[in-house]
Amino acid sequence: MIAALFEGVLRHGLALLVVLFAALLAAPYIVNSYLLAILIIILYYAYVGQAWNIMMGFAGQLSLGHALYVGLGAYTAAALFVKFGLSPWIGMLAAIPVAMTAGAIIGFLAFRFRVGGVYFAILTIAFAEFARVGFDHFTWVGGSSGFFLPVANYTTSDLWTLRGRPVMFYYLILTMVVIAFVLCRILLRSRIGTFWLAIREDEEAARAIGIDTFRYKMYAVVLSAGMTSLAGVFFAFYYNNLFPEQVFNIARSIELILAPIIGGIGTLFGPILGAFLLTGLSETMHAILQGLGVDVPGAKQVFYGLCLLFVVMALPDGVWPWVARKLGLGGRKP
Amino acid sequence: MPAEIYLNVAVGGILTGLVYGLMALGLSVIFGVVRVVNFAHGEMMTIAMYLAILAFSALKLDPLVMMVPIAAVLFALGYAMQAALINPFINRPEHSQFILLVAVAIIMVNVLLIIFGPDARNVMTSYSFDSFQVGPLIVDATKVYAGAAAIAVAAVLFAFFRFTYVGQAIRACADNYTGALVVGLNVKQLYALTFGIGAACVGAAGAMIVLIVDVTPALGPAYTLLAFIIVITGGLGSMPGALLGGILIGLTEAMAGLLFSPSAKSMFAFGLLVIVLLFRPQGIMGKRVA
Fold first, then answer.
1. Could you point out which of A292, B78, B224, B240 has its C-alpha 20 to 30 Å from the C-alpha of A103?
2. B152 belongs to a structural domain
């Protein structure tokens, strides 16, 4: 099983992977708390990017409303914790089915009624926006004035209630990224992954050779939604406050898909590399502007936009395929 | 509540909807011909709105007068965007075009933020508080002027696509890309022209809507979504559909604001969108595209 995972991986690729993983494991002992916070954000985007990539990168269904699943996961676990004192680990068990149901409803409606392409993307935005306005008026969880988890200055970490120091959250999100990565690799090499790629490349042809495209597209949406909801649980317990206006905002949906697109859609390393590049870029810019004494709101984002423009024009397949070629890992389809 | 209130709100909603419709018309024209979804549409709308605000505060020029020059400026912007940025992306996958336009949108919103700051701005004309009374009906003068101007611009556009040579050439590109190339049309240039025309619609709509709505840089994404809802409800690529969708959404929002709460109004617009997508995905007046 384990050996099968590494099958076909070049030796120096494997070495690089081990080095990267070791660096990430050791990071909290090396970096300061500011960098640690940034690493957490990077890994968070790497995780949701990986989850989104299942739907778009593997099965070819463009979702622009993934903030919906993040928000549902976040609100479900947070409400169970605050209102009933239930551990986020139990909250997760509730958050996953909630998000999966939402994904299943959207998928069912879209695929049964043959809503595809641009229309599907806009349908996903519509559901996320619908939830945003809905949660704005859902007073049981605070409505538009926000929903808060109790916070204190923690010196110890309690993994069961997820109350504690950033280091705990760092290792939690790192674990999530690793599991998502391994899961995606297993999926890609399995029968279901092959079916997804067939659907992505040519849905008509996939149906013609007897693939039940409706069912496999549903699997992709439901799995992606469930995985994304876990990111929501993490988000709720790490940031401790939830505002519908922020959590469900279309800007969140767009943010979380930029990493896999920049990194390389449909690749396993794309979301991770993209998250490092984008967050790194944005934080570097922030530091430079601060160093120059420039305090103009929006200046950072303009530069961010320009970089995005450059990447999408210069490297249409994303950065990872290009990096992979440079590292001599090319030819190997991840 | 007396019945007149409903009628007043409904008429106000329809007039605002006409301006929305003109904005969405721009999106629809661009998608219908170039087959690119303009994710920076609302951001272009806010650019036009700020131009109108600038012209008004600096030179005391009425937004309705400025409509034409602002449309011209936006035309130039749209033409340049298509020629320089989007034309190389015509044969790229949808998500690639999407990122390109999202990047453009991010730049637009934040440049506006740097220049104008986050505060809301508006225009106070001499007729801002005027109203017309028709029987029991009281309608804001600004909305009447804006609605009438929207119809006029849309009529000019219909005439352009129906009767002029260039308009017919653009429709030819939309109907059959390869065919248009074969008969020797300069498709890239016509695409740039089309994007310019779509942007000009946004320019005109933006100049008008400052009479009704306060502008902030953050309004951009909201208008992009609104334009999507409208064109999909009306039929993506259909020109009368965009106007009809605008009226429908304007009416829905106004009535939802009256009957429930103004903050919940966009939920009804999205509800309408979901229903239309499921039961008539091509939109009310649209033709089904494969």
1. B224
2. yes
